[in-house]
Structures are given as C-alpha cells and as structure tokens.
Inverse folding.
C-alpha cells in the first residue's frame, strides 16, 4: 500500500513540445527532467507521478517521443500556503537502433543544447529498466551528465516485474555498471505507484532549497 504523502499534485497539464530554444516555455520555472532509453517507461512514470491518465502518451513503439515535451505541474507542499508551480520535462529516448543516424544526431544535438543551457534545470531523472543491466548508452549518458555537472537521480523502472531479492541484486548491478557503488537508485513501479512517495519527497526537497 502506498504511503500517505505530504506533497499533493494539484494540477498537471501538457504545455509545449520543442526542438529549438525559442519553443521552450516563456515563463521560467524549476525543471525536473526525465531521460532514458526508448521504451524504458518514461511516459508511464510521468502519468503515475501526476496521477493524470494519458497525460504523457504511452506508446508500444520505441522512439516515439521525438521532441522535448514540457508538462506544467502545480503542487501543494506541507506548511506552505502558496502552491508551487514547476515543469516536468520529457526528453526523447536514446539508444533506439532503428532510428536513422541522421535523426539520432539531430536529436542528440537539441537534447544536449537543452541540458547545457537550461538555467532552471534542477536535476535529471535517468530511467533504467531494473530487469536488465545498464546498456552502453545508459552508461554513456550517466557519465556525460556527471561530467557536465548535472545532478542525476537514477530511477530503476518496472520494479513490479521482479521480486524483492532480485530488485536488490539488480540495483547492485546498476551501481556497478555506472561505477558508483554507493549510488542512490530508486526502484519505481508505475503500475503500483511504488516509489512515487519517495520521488515526490526528492522533488519537494529540491523546490524548498
């Protein structure tokens, strides 16, 4: 059963899609970014976190998200009268083999531009499928974010697909592959909303800083 959380999402709506800086939302707000391999479960996690069904479109076809998608959220934080407003930012999936090299190059250039130039970026949630060891593209992305000085929270998705003991083993696999033995990894199940309270707590702490 999910814990009662003191962060209440009061509003969530799709705001904009962008491939260029001039298409980003004009109003500056804190940004929390989601990135991961194609089909890792980003859309499902966003829908789980916001509790708005189909806010982010879930597709069985990898590589479907081809733009930077901005979602505007409102949240009621404990002991605060004013509601906080911020963006969730869904980046295109990386590492999809059937995407043409030209398109991959284009995508990586506008993703890199966004990550390097956003002044409101708080941290990146990098999603990795808990059932498998991180792939080369996962490791490369993690290392690039660390080198670039962008804070990363690793979220291990699809946690309901394996048992508790297997989860612990896979978390250690992820830590080992990424080269950080004490790395904090958050298992998450969009189906059961497991990990939702913990992720909301991290968002809250960042908003209150």
């Amino acid at each position: 059963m999910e814990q009662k959380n003191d962060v209440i999402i009061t509003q969530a709506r799709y705001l904009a899609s962008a491939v260029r800086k001039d298409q980003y939302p004009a109003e500056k707000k804190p940004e929390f970014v989601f990135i991961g391999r194609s089909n890792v479960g980003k859309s499902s996690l966003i829908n789980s976190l916001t509790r708005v069904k189909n806010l982010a479109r879930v597709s069985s076809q990898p590589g479907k998200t081809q733009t930077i998608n901005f979602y505007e959220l409102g949240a009621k934080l404990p002991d605060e009268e004013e509601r906080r407003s911020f963006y969730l930012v869904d980046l295109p999936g990386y590492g999809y083999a059937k995407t043409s090299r030209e398109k991959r190059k284009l995508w990586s250039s506008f993703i890199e531009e966004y990550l390097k130039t956003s002044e409101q970026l708080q941290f990146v949630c990098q999603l990795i499928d808990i059932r498998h060891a991180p792939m080369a593209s996962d490791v490369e992305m993690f290392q690039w974010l660390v080198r670039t000085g962008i804070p990363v929270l690793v979220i291990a998705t699809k946690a309901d697909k394996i048992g508790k003991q297997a989860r612990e083993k896979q978390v250690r696999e992820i830590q080992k592959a990424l080269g950080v033995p004490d790395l904090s990894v958050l298992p998450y199940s969009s189906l059961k909303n497991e990990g939702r309270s913990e992720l909301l707590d991290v968002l809250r702490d960042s908003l209150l800083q």
